[in-house]
């Protein structure tokens, strides 16, 4: 059942569309992959995401409610492992091994970031990477088949 005074966001706005943002919603990486969810705002109102199935939100994406309000989804800080290496080839090898395990992964030229997992942390250390535990926004690659 939908609570009264619920804002329902149903439309993804293209990245280049100019819009005045009414609300900001911090979402963890896994939450940004769910097209149907509900959240309570600090003022007691509820907001509901009712997006097309398969929608994967990126940090900064804009959504529009049925009533016109605009929401910006942002990456919420969450526990992550950040792996660095002295050589780019070491990072590439790690990407290969993690990719074989279909691990959600944030990839940059300087580091890899993934959700905490002691087995994967040990693997990365065995591959010669330095791994540290942090709490930061996690922005994994959306994958080849992700859509808005």
TrEMBL record:
| InterPro entries the record matches | UreE (IPR012406), UreE_C_dom (IPR007864), UreE_N (IPR004029), UreE_N_sf (IPR036118)
Q: Which UniProt keywords apply?
A: Chaperone, Cytoplasm, Nickel
Which residues belong to any copy of the UreE urease accessory N-terminal domain? 6-71
Question: What is any one GO biological process for this UniProt entry?
Answer: protein folding
For this chain, one GO molecular function annotation is: unfolded protein binding
Q: Which GO terms describe its cellular component?
A: cytoplasm
Q: Quote the Pfam families the UniProt record gives.
A: UreE_C (PF05194), UreE_N (PF02814)
What role does it play? Involved in urease metallocenter assembly. Binds nickel. Probably functions as a nickel donor during metallocenter assembly.
Name the family the entry cites.
Answer: Belongs to the UreE family.
The cross-references to HAMAP family, in alphabetical order and at most eight, read: UreE (MF_00822)
Question: What is the protein name given in its UniProt record?
Answer: Urease accessory protein UreE
Record organism: Rubidibacter lacunae KORDI 51-2
């Amino acid at each position: 059942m939908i609570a009264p005074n619920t804002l329902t966001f149903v439309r993804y706005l293209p990245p280049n569309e100019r819009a005045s943002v009414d609300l900001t919603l911090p979402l963890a990486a896994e939450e940004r992959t769910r097209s149907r969810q509900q959240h309570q705002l600090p003022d007691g109102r509820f907001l509901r995401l009712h997006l097309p199935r398969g929608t994967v939100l990126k940090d900064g994406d804009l959504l529009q409610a049925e009533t016109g309000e605009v929401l910006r989804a942002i990456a919420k800080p969450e526990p992550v492992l950040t792996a660095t290496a002295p050589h780019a080839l070491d990072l590439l090898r790690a990407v290969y091994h993690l990719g074989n395990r279909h691990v959600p992964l944030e990839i940059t030229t300087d580091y890899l970031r993934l959700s905490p997992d002691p087995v994967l942390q040990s693997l990365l250390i065995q591959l010669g990477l330095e791994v540290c535990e942090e709490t930061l926004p996690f922005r994994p690659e959306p994958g080849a088949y992700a859509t808005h």
